[in-house]
């Protein structure tokens, strides 16, 4: 077992393959509001941020009422209308069980809103694995360290005994600013070169490798 006590996972792009649904729902939301679509690549780049911060990047030239319309339409599509599947990455449930059996404390720090996280935790039945979680709408969006700092304070685990696992540079920056280590996964939305520039402990290719590295860093 490694020297870590607490493993803080990102959700989208790390545990769940939700990229296609997020892109589809944003494209539909923008079409509903009848404004120009910034492109799939731009949307993929902001996955992991809170909605407000994502729209600051994607729609900088539009006023707040217009952005709010996009938020409302996005949530409607994501929660109720769009049927794009969001599978867990291969090995996630088994890997979380293995970490739990080795007495790691597991948590989530996500750019999702609380209602969205609770929904996917219920759908996937993974909620039992996590002792706590923080969402962007109840803290501060990544890359600010607030979510991690809140989790550390709640659990009583020192930053040096925790690690953040994520697929974006926002996860890596959040971890470093909170004083924890970071482990990058290369199968999510940000490419390996960008992730490695943030100096994670490692960059792994699949979730089985996440588990192997955490058990034997």
Summary keywords:
217 residues; alpha/beta; Rossmann fold; DNA polymerase, domain 1; 2 domains; 6-stranded parallel beta sheet; 10 helices; globular
What does this structure look like?
This protein has 217 residues and is α/β, with parallel strands linked by helices. It has two domains: 6-17 and 87-215, 3-Layer(aba) Sandwich (Rossmann fold), CATH 3.40.50; 19-81, DNA polymerase, domain 1. Helices cover 48% and strands 12% of the residues. It has ten helices and six strands, in the order βαααααβαβαβαβαβα. It has helices at 19-33, 40-46, 51-58, 64-81, 92-101, 114-124, 146-155, 169-178, 192-197, 207-215; strands at residues 6-9, 105-110, 132-135, 162-166, 181-185, 203-204. The chain has a six-stranded parallel sheet, sandwiched between helices. Helix 1 crosses helix 4 (64-81) and helix 5 (92-101) runs parallel beside helix 10 (207-215). The longest helix is centred in the middle third of the chain and has 18 residues, at 64-81. The protein is globular. It starts with 5 loop residues before the first strand and ends with a helix. The mean pLDDT is 95.
